[in-house]
């Protein structure tokens, strides 16, 4: 089965401003390019077919990376590449 991007009814954001705390975060952000579509936590949960709480747990465990808007407690956003990298790491873990 092939999963596609989040459904059209879901909102996607075009990021124009992001507070970054380190040069590494800035480098990652620049690579995203401001016009790339980003996914919300709810869209990622829908794509992975898990709950939003599970996505938060994956982030807290360091298994899934995200960007935060508004600092601690702010909105979490994801590039599709971050989600695909997580899925690839899951597949590698099963085959090992």
CATH topology of the domain at 35-95: Multidrug-efflux Transporter Regulator, Chain: A, Domain 2
Q: Report how far the terminal alpha carbons are from each other.
A: 22 Å
Please state the second-level CATH architecture of the domain at 35-95.
Answer: Orthogonal Bundle
Name the beta content range: 5-15%
Roughly what percent helix? 40-55%
Largest sheet composition: 4 strands, antiparallel
Can you tell me the CATH class of the domain at 35-95? Mainly Alpha
Number of helices: 4
SSE succession: EHEHHEEH
Task: Give the overall shape, derived from the CA principal axes.
Answer: globular
The secondary structure category is alpha+beta
How would you write the strand order of the largest sheet? 1-2-4-3
According to DSSP, the number of beta strands is 4
Mean pLDDT: 75
Regions with little confidence, pLDDT below 50 for 5+ residues: 8-18
The Cα radius of gyration reads 14 Å
Plain-language structure description:
- By secondary structure, this protein is an alpha+beta fold.
- The protein has a domain at 35-95: Multidrug-efflux Transporter Regulator, Chain: A, Domain 2 (Orthogonal Bundle), CATH 1.10.1660.10.
- It has helices spanning 23-32, 41-48, 52-60, 80-95, and strands at residues 13-14, 37-40, 67-69, 75-78.
- A 4-stranded antiparallel sheet has the order 1-2-4-3.
- A hairpin with a 5-residue loop joins strand 3 and strand 4.
- It is globular.
- Mean pLDDT is 75; it is low at 8-18.
């Amino acid at each position: 089965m092939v999963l596609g991007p989040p459904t059209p009814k879901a909102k996607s954001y075009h990021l124009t401003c992001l507070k970054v705390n380190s040069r590494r975060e800035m480098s990652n952000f620049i690579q995203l390019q401001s016009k790339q579509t980003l996914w919300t936590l709810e869209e990622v949960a829908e794509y992975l077919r898990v709950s939003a709480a599970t996505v938060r747990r994956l982030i807290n465990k360091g298994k899934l990376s995200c960007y935060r808007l508004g600092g601690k407690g702010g909105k979490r956003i994801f590039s599709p590449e971050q989600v695909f990298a997580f899925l690839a790491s899951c597949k590698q873990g099963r085959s090992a």
